[in-house]
Write a structure and sequence with these properties.
By secondary structure, the protein is mainly beta. The chain contains four helices and 50 strands. The strands form ten sheets. Strands 42-43-48-47-44-45-46-49-50 form a nine-stranded antiparallel beta sheet, with no helix packed on it. Strands 1-2-6-3-4-5 form a six-stranded antiparallel beta sheet. A hairpin with a 6-residue loop joins strand 10 and strand 11. Helix 3 (148-167) packs antiparallel against helix 4 (199-225). Residues 173-195 and 220-244 have low confidence and may be disordered.
Length: 801
């Protein structure tokens, strides 16, 4: 049956038949479910990898109206033209990852880092994925997308397999006589001599296979022609990854107590309702350090770790627990502070960054044994190491009343000293405690008289030491003795708008009260005998904002006892008397919109003109010099992200992203820059250094000691110590991304280690909205300058860094 040279043909024929068998079987799997009402589509992109790859055929069944929408499942749905960058409705195949409260659903590709930008309605779902036939649609995909070299290679390979399977090898059967020597085997029959399938039948089988595969290719090309399964989406929403569990576990750490010695146990609690808790790790770090050391990792409850505290130096420590669930999601508990004291030590409690008046300083002794100690508290001008006694011969509970009024306003270091015979122990030094007994300076801007409508109240306030905490504006009606708050402002500029129609007409006094961070307060000179008169007619125009773009709202407040005939809101080029009426309104609310794109960019003044029913005209105060700026290039967003490290603190791994409305020329940010990763320095300065107050800490980016042209970011937070600054090594890069079909440049600054002033950093735990002030030095590739309009952080109010 075999000859020596027949083995290669045998194996080639066998491999070809196996290949064709698998290919035809997959084809049947892709076609037969149609009999059950399923429909198939070939996947075009890698947005669902690793589970679904390009060229796979997904068979989907209609979603019965009685079935719930399968959250966590893969669905086929129509994506409306409004959600597509190209403006054409498409079919998508993505996973439903969450349900919204309004009945819509959130979808995402398993390989995507962002969810899809448009919520999904149940009516858009055309089917739920039921069966995956791998790779069967690749030839059709190659045909439909013009990848002809790959299609040609597959076609030649498949044709060779057909030839090898049907014509390459068949076993020889000996003739009945066993002696034939002619070409016909000696049997006298001119036909086939191999005892196998007739050649005509083989040729027909080959033609049938080729026709079936050709139909598969053409059908596959049509199956995906109406489907555009993209790999990315243009949304800056929450980040999801492909997993059956989208919720991190919950974890808390029990406080082991204020003081620890010897062997102790640290216990955490963790829960995960979806996939369960895989492990819990308990860690500790020396107070003020970001270097965490694992105590243990526990995989089953109770999650408790033994801690042999004699193995670490005495001192203050921070503890935390991290839990990981079976989907790989991780959560970290709030930190817990404790003190390890296995040997005798003395600790002075921190009185806070700023003190005033008489402050109590408390010392504690740990593990004193049977010895009796005398305790004293000492102070030194910060950084001089010249110590003097504040309180001496203290007995338990070792409290010292520090009368800071006897000290100059300055920074001081503090420590406690315990003495027993010849044994003297010193506490760790509490550094840079600011004494501030000086009141801030405050001056009220005279609001004028008579006051009508909505009036601006403003004051100037400063404090050379701890900084201004807030300025409160107050009023006192003539004949009374109680000052009533009008408004409180916590950030510079200290001003607010007050609707005087909410108080009775009459004679009033006004003042401003400034309070600093230490609690000292000062009162401005009183603006007395100011008349509030809204009885005849009053009109004011609301400030539309310092920078105006696109369509803006114009608002006015008006009042007249004679009745209002009309209110006109007008604009004029700044400083000119050429007023243009933007709208005429006969009744409240007195508001309209103004399309600033129809006006030339520049500074404008605003006013409102009231005409009452008797024809008397009242003109409001002018809101001056508001800039109209419709430059096509502007900043659109500023975001900070805590990628690692401590939340609310600027440290390594944190990212600051500046987003422009259009692509920019990177060389206009830094000369010669192409957008590639570039070493820079991030400078963080306390807001008091810039006259912005304690919650005005500001970030800018430096290159070789000079600021790059990104401008400055007011964090609206308190990330650095009073009147201090910190420099942080960083890397800056730029990339062009497409959002909602519009290309934009995002400049990303990734923080590294602190270059200087690391001890000045603090954790800021309050949610705030950052404001970025771009510079006009940054231009588009065509040379168009960036608008200098401030950019406010978008999205939900959250903690930064």
């Amino acid at each position: 049956m075999f000859s020596a040279d027949g083995w290669p043909l045998f194996f080639a024929s066998l491999a070809s038949r196996l290949y064709l068998g698998v290919l035809l079987s997959l084809s049947l799997f892709a076609v037969l479910p149609v009999l059950f009402g399923w429909h198939g589509t070939v996947v075009q992109s890698g947005s669902m990898e690793p589970h679904i790859s390009p060229g796979d055929m997904v068979l989907a069944a209609r979603l019965d109206p009685s079935q719930p929408v399968p959250v966590g499942g893969v669905v086929e749905y129509r994506s409306p033209a409004s959600a597509e960058p190209g403006g054409v409705e498409k079919i998508r195949l993505h996973r439903i990852v969450a349900a919204n409260t309004d009945g819509t659903f959130v979808t995402a590709g398993d390989a995507n880092t962002s969810v899809d930008s448009t919520p999904l309605d149940r009516g858009q779902i055309t089917g739920q994925a039921r069966l995956l036939v791998p790779s069967i649609g690749l030839p059709g995909l190659w045909l439909g997308t013009g990848k002809f070299p790959a299609l040609a290679f597959w076609s030649v390979l498949t044709l060779l397999a057909v030839v090898a399977a049907l014509f390459g090898w068949a076993p020889k059967e000996p003739s009945a006589a066993g002696a034939g020597d002619g070409n016909d085997g000696g049997d006298g029959d001119p036909g086939s001599d191999d005892g196998g399938t007739p050649p005509l039948l083989r040729a027909g089988t080959a033609a049938g296979i080729v026709a079936a595969l050709t139909t598969l290719v053409i059908a596959g090309a049509g199956a995906f022609s109406a489907a555009a399964f993209t790999a990315t989406t243009a949304s800056a929403a929450n980040t999801f990854s492909a997993a059956p569990d989208w919720t991190p576990p919950s974890v808390t750490l029990a406080n082991p107590g204020p003081t620890l010695r010897g062997a102790t146990v640290v216990t955490a609690e963790a829960n995960d309702a979806e996939t369960g808790v895989r492990s819990v790790t308990v860690e500790y770090a020396a107070a003020g350090s970001n270097t965490w050391v694992a105590l243990c990792t526990v995989t089953t409850a109770p999650y408790s770790c033994p801690w042999n505290t004699p193995g670490v130096p005495d001192g203050q420590y921070t503890l935390r627990a991290s839990a990981t669930d079976n989907a790989g999601l991780t959560a970290t508990s709030a930190t817990v502070s404790t003190t390890v004291a296995n040997t005798f030590s003395v600790v002075l409690n921190d009185p806070g960054e700023v003190v005033r008046g008489t402050t109590t300083l408390s010392a504690s002794l740990y593990s004193p044994g049977t010895s009796t100690y005398s305790v004293r508290v000492e102070y030194s001008l910060a950084g001089t190491n010249r110590w003097s006694t504040l309180c001496s011969n203290l007995a338990a509970p070792y409290n010292c009343a520090w009368n800071t009024a006897q000290f100059a306003n300055d920074f001081y270091d503090l420590r406690a000293v315990a003495v027993s015979g010849t044994v003297t122990r010193y506490s760790e030094t509490v550094t840079d405690v600011l004494v501030d007994n000086g009141a801030p300076a405050v001056t009220l801007t005279d609001p004028g008289t008579a006051l009508r409508g909505t009036t601006t109240f403003a004051a100037a306030a400063s404090d050379p030491h701890s900084g201004v905490a807030n300025v409160q504006f107050q009023y006192l009606r003539s004949g009374t003795s109680t000052w009533i708050p009008l408004c409180t402002v916590e950030e510079s500029p200290y001003s607010c708008r007050f609707d005087t129609t909410t108080i009775a007409n009459g004679t009033y006094s006004f003042r401003a009260v400034a309070t600093d961070e230490a609690g000292n307060s000062a009162v401005s000179t009183v603006a007395a005998s100011r008349t509030v008169d809204n009885t005849v007619a009053s009109v004011s125009v609301e400030d539309p904002g310092a920078y105006l773009t696109g369509t803006v709202a114009l608002k006015a407040a008006a009042n007249s006892t004679a009745g209002i005939a009309k209110v006109e809101i007008q604009t004029a080029p700044a400083g000119a008397a050429t007023w243009t009426t933007r709208c005429t309104l006969a009744a409240a609310p007195f508001s309209c919109t103004w399309d600033t794109t129809a006006a030339a960019d520049g500074l404008y003044d605003f006013r409102a003109v009231l005409t009452d029913a008797a024809g008397r005209v009242t003109v409001s105060a002018t809101v001056s010099s508001r800039r109209v700026d419709n430059s096509p290039l502007r900043g659109v967003d500023i975001q900070a992200d805590n990628r690692s490290g401590v939340a609310g603190k600027l440290d390594a791994g944190d990212v600051l992203a500046f987003t422009y409305s259009q692509p920019i020329d990177p060389a206009s940010v830094v000369p010669g820059w192409t957008g590639a990763a570039l070493p820079v320095t991030v400078r963080l300065r306390d807001g008091n250094l810039l006259g912005l107050g304690n919650s005005g800490d500001t970030v800018d980016v430096l290159r070789n000691g000079s600021a790059v042209n990104l401008g400055a970011v007011n964090t609206r937070g308190n990330f650095v110590k009073n009147r201090s600054a910190t420099s942080i090594n960083a890397t800056m890069s730029a990339a062009t991304v497409t959002i909602a079909g519009v290309p934009r440049t995002v400049v990303t600054v990734t923080l590294g280690s602190a270059a200087s002033g690391a001890n000045n950093l603090r954790i800021f735990g309050t949610a705030a909205t950052m404001v970025w002030s771009p510079t006009a030095a940054v231009t588009s590739p065509a040379g168009v300058a960036t608008s200098t309009a401030p950019v406010t952080e978008t999205g939900a109010l959250d903690r930064d860094f």
